[in-house]
Amino acid sequence: MDLNRLKLTLSCLIISGYVITGCTKEEGNSNNSGDKSKITEETRYANMFAKDILEIYYYWNNEISQDLNKLDPEKNSDPITTVEEIRYHDGTNPIDKWTMLTNNMDEFTSSVQGVSTTYGYTPIVYYITADSNDLIAVVAYVSKDSPAEKAGLKRGDIIYQIDGKTLTVDNYMDLYYSSNITLSFAKLNGLEVIPTDKKVSMIAIEMYENPILCDTVYNFNGKKVGYLAYSSFDLTSIPELINICKDFKSEGIKELVLDLRYNGGGYVITENVLASMFAPQTNVTNKDIFEKEDYNDFFTEYYKQEGISTETRFETEYNYNYNDINQHVSTKDANIGLEKIYGIITGNSASASEALLSGLMPYMDIELIGQKSHGKYCTGWMLAAEDAYKTVPPAIKNWGIYVMVSIYKNANDETPCMPNGLTPDLNAEDYPLETYQLGDVNEAMLKVALQRAGKVYPESRSSVTYSPFIDSKVIETPKKTNFGKRIIMPSLSRMPGIE
Question: Which of 67, 264, 276, 441 sits at 20 to 30 Å (Cα–Cα) from 359?
Fold first, then answer.
């Protein structure tokens, strides 16, 4: 689609009020088949909304242009599934695994922001043996003030029964999605699961899970090294992050262990705030480039004509107003003065986690420890239907879309995690079966980072014996809603088609 036609389309979106199919030219006939009896007013408008957004904002809009006709408002009865099917792929290889349409934007936004109905723990589930359906679940971490914390759960606890029944492939999802649960615990002796007397009951509640899991400072060899374990780039935690960095600064730390092993991403503004406190002060003062966004052809030309920069520079003043969170924060006095970051990463480190480390690489020493990261190299907008139209059809008032709009690059025009993730400089494994909590100097991944920073450990250390099955037989478990999300909050005044 050329620029003039897109401008006409955008004009139609805001002039028509409700979406009128005749306003945007349709080309060709849809091959989509469906039961017309299932085409409700809501479904019809949802198809139109998804097609309009993908045609204009989507990074790979040219590549999927022919597939857009599958979002036929008169034939397609399932626009949510259709968006998932047509998002960009190369043959059977999915390039975009993240664009998604939702019919409950309020719930989606809240969950991304860290509010959900939960027990407040993160279990990792493993097969006991290759030829069995029996499982164990190991608690990776527990959220503060959660039902799990109040019940006494902690990292390393081993769950072997749910409601009196052995944990298996048939019932393990109850660990995540049930409303109340009774858990029985065990210990391991090699591959043998030995029940203990520990048993707890919990009721899931709606709560905010604070992503700041641990922060502390270590002293050794005449130096101070900071540690921050962070599980989500949300908005609520920003003021606390600033205070932590001010404390790090007052302690005089020069190196930081940044533990992102469980961080699946989140908001770009949080990433920018952290970068302004981690980067060298000179680069922040000079407002050097932190990141760049590469948009589709239309947006690249549109921003060029409008004189809108697609670069993000280091700043110290931040304003954000989103989903009832209205804040002004300053990092002016919070730059730590770091010389090096040890980034702890795993396959659960994605999106904003990868972007933060990538954006800092041109300016400072970043050493990566752990496992290859997830490889989420694009950025999305969370757009409600009311953001896209001057007047929203009531039928889709709570619909929205998380749409990939750009690929991020650092100041060297590099995206180090593209296409398959950041590669660690030094391999290390996460062993939640050990009794050491996050922040304990003997915890497996932190120990590797501190050794790299110069801490000397005894030749041997005591540890709970963990079984070798843990390395290779993990079962797929639900991801938090923020996983794989790198979310730019678009300024609606800067978005074409928005008034």
Answer: 441
- Please give the C-alpha separations between residue 104 and each of 13, 123, 224, 384, 397, in angstroms, as whole numbers: 22, 26, 47, 10, 9
Count of residues for the chain?
A: 499
What are the strands, taking DSSP E only, across 264-390? 265-267, 289-295, 311-313, 317-322, 325-330, 340-345, 365-370, 378-384
CB under 8 Å to 325, separation ≥6 — which residues?
A: 113, 235, 236
Q: Name the residue among 252, 288, 256, 294 with its Cα closest to residue 272.
A: 288
For the entire predicted model, the pTM comes to: 0.86
The residue with tokens 């239309």 is 298
Nearest partner of 249 among 281, 273, 214, judged by Cα: 281
Helices of type H across 18-104? 41-56, 79-86
Exposure string for 159-173, b = 16+ CB within 10 A, e = fewer: bbbbeeebbeeeebe
Q: Encode pLDDT of 49-106 as tens digits.
A: 999 999 999 999 999 999 999 999 999 999 999 999 999 998 888 899 999 999 998 8
371-410 pLDDT per residue, tens: 999 999 999 888 899 877 878 889 999 999 999 999 999 9
Indicate the pairing of strand 340-345 with strand 365-370. Answer: parallel
Distance set, CA 173 to CA 126, 127, 483 (Å)? 13, 14, 18
Report the sign of the C-alpha dihedral through residues 245, 248, 252, 255, in that order.
Answer: negative
Dihedral of the alpha carbons of 228, 229, 231, 234, in degrees to the nearest 10: -20
